[in-house]
Amino acid sequence: MATAKKNESKAGTQKKTTAKPKAKAASKAKVKPTPKPQDPVQEMATTTEPFRNLANVEPFTLFTAQDVYLFREGKHYRLYEKFGAHRMNYEGVEGTYFSVWAPDAVFVSVIGNFNDWDAYSHTLFPRWDNSGIWEGFIAGVAEGELYKYFIRAKDGSELRKGDPYAFHWEKRPRTASITTNLDFRWRDKAWMKDREVTNALDKPWSVYELHLASWRRPDAFDRESFYNYREIAKMLVPYIQEMGFTHVELLPVMEHPLDASWGYQITGYFAPTSRFGTPQDFMYFVDSLHRAGIGVLLDWVPSHFPYDDHGLYRFDGSHVYEYEDPRKGFHPDWNSYIFNYGRNEVRSFLISNALYWLDKYHIDGFRVDAVASMIHLDYSREDGDWEPNVYGGNEHLEALQFLREFNMAVYQYYPGVQTIAEESSSYDGITRPVHLGGVGFGMKWMMGWMNDTLKYFKKDPYFRQFHQDEFTFSIMYAFKENFMLPLSHDEVVHGKSPIVFKMPGDDWQKMANTRLLYSYMFTHPGTKLLFMGNEWGVTHEWNDATQLDWTLLQYPSHQGLQHYVKRLNHLYKTEPSLYATQFDPLGFEWINLNDRSQSVMVYARKSEDPKNTLYIVLNMTPVARHNYGIKVQGKEPWIEILNSDATEFFGSGIVNEGELLPGKHGDDYLLLVNVPPLGAAIFKSKNILTS
């Protein structure tokens, strides 16, 4: 027999190397019985005598007729329970059941260490119902076995593919799937019981976005150096608790061949990457965060996939998972392929994948990548490179229908989670419920706020007075969707510079501007997301090949910024006016937008209880304003509850101490305050604080 070659490819390559795994016997499954015990009852309980001699591959199925029907209709959302490799006992023999969807294949077999990668010894059976499913039971295949599918296409080409439903993969550059179980003793019962309340849209969402490989490394200068999921958890949990973030969001952890893709070019959708350990190690990671009261979000990529030899592209020699027409099936920005959302079986695959992470890993939600590219046929395409839909428009109707079905399934089966769209266009109704004509996401990234705000902050403070409308424009549409305010990884790579270096001025002014930016972010309507390192002001662009520069925390300026983010998180989580009405226009009011020459702006955040009202004063120039008048209701005393210019945050110390009593000014009451340079001051009624 010929020995198959094991693919070891990187994203976007077609490289193959020959593996020489240790051979194991691939005989017919006759298991040697255990010695007969004296007790006949014990004999029945302990014998491993097979009922009969088994063939190399036995015809067996986990699919019912209803399973196949739902799969072909695009309505089977638990395919991971059927497809892939599943350990089981068949007729008294331990082994593994394999099943794979390869509708245009003419021959499919399982190859691996157990048969010395022989393409012809363990041939799967095609189902009789024309579903395209190949399956069979192979005795003796235990946990931890390497395997792939050998597929012969109609044109005679021979492919060696990883399992689309594999729960575990070899560490790159090796590309075999690994048989494994998903057994784990979860201890997050309290979190899971309460998360429908904790993860609700009227609760605080302060998300810490991170890339596991580059948050910390055992050796900052060794790209092959990784911590295990368990080791990361032991470092990350206390840090997130100290900083006060409510959730972490992981850049894609699904198996991917190329580090530089940051996980966005996925080949193993059902497996946490083996760079950091096993599925159980990742379960421990999630469990640890949950037991500490921290939610876990995953970056999910249903938009495109790479063309590696062992991946989904032309899986059986035909366009199984991707559109055949390159105008819909090829993504020019990322040199990758687009899922065929019009194919029922592909929608079942993707929605099953989403529910798999919620089911088996207790994930609290998804940030769905590149939604704008999915729902627009002309995204990054010139005229002639895309085909309008049946109505002549640019909406990708099949992708929109898939996203609606995805959101309906997620919220139906897991009401305690949220879905978040990375969607940069003005497409209406992204977070509107499906039954009201929307797409059904829980939240949407507010890309307009991010772009306009960073553009404003880059300007010299003197010129900000001429661009105030650009700064305040976000409030005009802030309540059209349920927005999350992101300062994400995308803003600190590819020449965009880190957040601190986007700011004008000397080193002190850069830090003051950054604290001012975060003050505005945390008091603006919407939930929050901050990429790792931004919380203390990293001074270099993000580099996935090393770790964050933690040594910066020896300097008072970076310590001060980090301490200020802690205080902002605490403020956000303890003040209902900042989260309870974060998607409600009644929760925001401009108090003063008329002081353009001094670039001072004042606004209020409110909850249903007027006693919780906060006043926020922003000074966009480096000139302090003393005895600045703010109109308030009534004569009750006020107190400053946070000031970005406090010396504990590396500020200049222009703060407001003690009680602040409004004075009568005509028919109004004015509160006279000190407004810090390039700073924010936040006020609340003292009577409320002490009642």
Automatic annotation (TrEMBL):
GO molecular function: 1,4-alpha-glucan branching enzyme activity; cation binding; hydrolase activity, hydrolyzing O-glycosyl compounds
Domain Glycosyl hydrolase family 13 catalytic residue range list: 224-558
Basic residues: compositionally biased ranges: 17-33
One Pfam short name: CBM_48
Region Disordered, annotated ranges: 1-43
This protein's encoding gene: glgB
Family: Belongs to the glycosyl hydrolase 13 family. GlgB subfamily.
Subunit (UniProt): Monomer.
Official protein name in the record: 1,4-alpha-glucan branching enzyme GlgB
Protein EC: 2.4.1.18
Domain of life, source organism: Bacteria
Active site: 369, 422
Keyword list, A-Z: Carbohydrate metabolism, Glycogen biosynthesis, Glycogen metabolism, Glycosyltransferase, Transferase
PANTHER family, per the entry: 1,4-ALPHA-GLUCAN-BRANCHING ENZYME (PTHR43651:SF3)
Provenance organism: Chitinophaga caeni
HAMAP family: GlgB
Protein purpose: Catalyzes the formation of the alpha-1,6-glucosidic linkages in glycogen by scission of a 1,4-alpha-linked oligosaccharide from growing alpha-1,4-glucan chains and the subsequent attachment of the oligosaccharide to the alpha-1,6 position.
Gene Ontology cellular component list: cytosol
Pathway assignment: Glycan biosynthesis; glycogen biosynthesis
